[in-house]
Amino acid sequence: MKKCIICSVPAAFSIKDSSDFYCQECAEENFDSVEYLQKIEGPYDGAPKIPLSPSDAGQADLI
Ligand SMILES: [Zn+2]
C-alpha cells in the first residue's frame, strides 16, 4: 500500500512523472487542482459487477 509522503496515511493519489504519493487531503492542500494527480485504483475497484438476471426482462414463461 502506498502512503502519503506527508502524513503517512494510505495514499489516494500519485504525482505524474514522480514517485510521490499523497492522500486526498494533502493533495488538495498542495495542489490547486488534482489534474496533476493520478488516482490510485484500490484493490477492489476492479471487481466485476454481477449482472441482474438480464433474461427476466425479455423472457416470460407464461403457463
Ligand atoms: Zn496526507
Which descriptors would you attach to this protein?
alpha+beta; 63 residues; binds zinc ion; 13% strand; 2 helices; 17% helix; 3 strands; single chain
Q: Report the average pLDDT across residues.
A: 79
List low-pLDDT spans: none
Secondary-structure element series = EEHEH
The radius of gyration is 20 Å
In whole angstroms, the N-to-C terminal distance is 56 Å
Major sheet strand order: 2-1-3
User: What's the total helix number?
Assistant: 2
Count every beta strand, where a strand is a DSSP E run of 2 or more residues: 3
Helix-and-strand structural type:
alpha+beta
**Beta-strand residue fraction:** 5-15%
Describe the 3D structure.
The longest helix is centred in the middle third of the chain and has 7 residues, at 24-30. A hairpin with a 5-residue loop joins strand 1 and strand 2 (21-22). The protein contains two helices and three strands, in the order E-E-H-E-H. The radius of gyration is 20 Å and the shape is elongated. The chain has helices at residues 24-30, 55-58, and strands at 13-15, 21-22, 37-39. With 63 residues, the chain is an alpha+beta fold.
Summarize the structure.
The chain has a domain at 1-41. Helix content is 17%, strand content 13%.
Write the layout of secondary structure elements.
Blueprint: E1 13-15, E2 21-22, H1 24-30, E3 37-39, H2 55-58
Antiparallel strand pairs: 1-2, 1-3
The structure holds zinc ion.
